[in-house]
Automatic annotation (TrEMBL):
Cofactor(s) annotated in UniProt: Zn(2+); Mg(2+); Co(2+)
Keyword terms: Cobalt, Cytoplasm, Magnesium, Metal-binding, NAD, NADP, Oxidoreductase, Pyridoxine biosynthesis, Zinc
Name recorded for this polypeptide: 4-hydroxythreonine-4-phosphate dehydrogenase
Localization terms from the record: Cytoplasm
InterPro entries reported for this sequence: PdxA, PdxA_fam
Amino acid sequence: MPASALTKASAAPVVITTGEPAGIGPELTLMLAAQGLLPANAVAIGDPEMLRQRAASLGLDIPIVECSPGECPLGNHRLPVWPVALSAPVTPGVLNPANADYVLATLALAVDACQQGQASAMVTAPLHKGVIIEGGHVGFTGHTEWLRDACGVDEVVMMLATDAALHATSPSWQGSGDLRVALVTTHLPLRNVADAITYERVIRISHLLAADLQRQFNIAKPRIAVCGLNPHAGEDGHLGREELDIIIPALDALRAEGMDIHGPLPADTLFTPRHLAGVDAVLAMYHDQGLAVLKYAGFGQAANITLGLPLVRTSVDHGTALGLAGKGLADPSSLKVAITLARRLAAQRGGAR
C-alpha cells in the first residue's frame, strides 16, 4: 500500500492478537473486518500471508494491509496487520507445536505496544495451552498468567462477564442472566485448587476485584458475593474446613475494612436471582465453579477481562474450536463484545497504561 494511504493513528489502536493459527481466531477477526464491524483504527497482529490464505479459503474479500506500530490504514472492509511471521505452515484444525513461539510473539508485540503507547488496549483471540506447552513452554498455564508475568505484576484476576453486565454500572440481575464472575484460582488442576486458596490470596483477589470494579466499571461501592469452596459452603466444617479456617476469616477482615462482601455462600444456590439481587460481581473459588454458570447464561455474548494489569486486556469467552476452523461456521460475537469493551475501558483509562 502506498505510504500516503497510511496515517499516524489519531488515537492509539486496539490491537487484536489472532491467537492459535490453526483455530478460529484468525477467521473471527477476518469475519468482523469483512462485515465492516471492526473499529476504523483496529489492528490485527499475526502472519499476513496466513490471514490472506484463510480469507481466500472462506471466500472473504478483505484486503490485508501490512503496517507498523504507530501507523494504521483508515477505513472499513480492510484489515490492517502488524506482521509476525509463522514458524511453520498452518492447516486449519491441525495443531503444530512449532508455532508456539509465534503465538507468544504476537502477545509480546501487543503488550509492548500497549506499554509504549502505540496501542490503547489489547484483545486476544483464543490460544491452545497444550500446544504452547508441547512447543517447549512447560510452565505455560494461559493468557492470564502469562500477561501477569509479562507486565511484572504480582497478582491479576480473571473476570468474565456477559454483555449487558459489562456495560452496567448498577446490578441488573433479577433473573436476567447477566453476570460478572471473577476467580480466586484460574487454570489449576482441581486436585491443586484447595491448596491454592489461602487467607492472603482471598484478601488480595478481593481487593483487586473491588478496585477494578470501581476504576473500570464506575461502581462506587461494589457489592461482592463469594462462593464457598466445598458443597454447602463446608456445612459448618463437616464437608471441609476451608470455609472455617480460611475464607470466613478473610471475608471478616475485608468487611472490617469496610468492603461490601458477602459469604461464603453455597455455590449451588448463590447463582439464583434471590442471592444475586443487588450484587455487582460473584467471586468463585475455581474456574468451572463460576464459569460454567456464566457460559450457560451468556456463551458467545460475554468477554474475559484481566483485572490488575497496567494495560487493558479483554478476550473472547471460548476456545480455539479446532473442529470449526477453516469452515466459516464460527461465530464472531464474543470477539465483537471483547473489542467494544476494550475500547470503552481504554477510553475510561484515558490512555493510561
